[in-house]
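Objective 1b. Sequence-to-structure analysis of Transposase.
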Amino acid sequence: MSKIIFNEHQMKLLENNENVDHVSERSIAYTPAFKIKAVKENLEGKAPSQIFIENGFEIEIIGAEKPRSCLKRWRKTFKQFGEEGFLTERRGKGSTGRPTSEEVSVEDNLRKAEARIKYLEAELEFLKKLDELERQASKKRK
């Protein structure tokens, strides 16, 4: 998150930009359409600050590093999920989260169960040895 804190006037200016979804004192949420457009233009060779300026942002307000850091994050999302990555929410209540046991294959479940059994058997052997050593130590003390 940026260290910049926006005042009321700056927040209103940013909210009036069609590429902004919403603004708080500390952050700007950009529209998915702008993110997609910005990533595509950046991949074609346009500089991050140039993209932001051409789309109505004042670098003095948002900060000189904001365009570069946003595009770095957006390119990563675009590379991983494509355009769909900007259109679907992957955080919070709307997130699909980790796969449930139904989505995990039978082979994966079997492999995990076998690994767990192996671990528990090794743990049991360790506890047996520990118990035997404690018995031997108590015999020596007597």
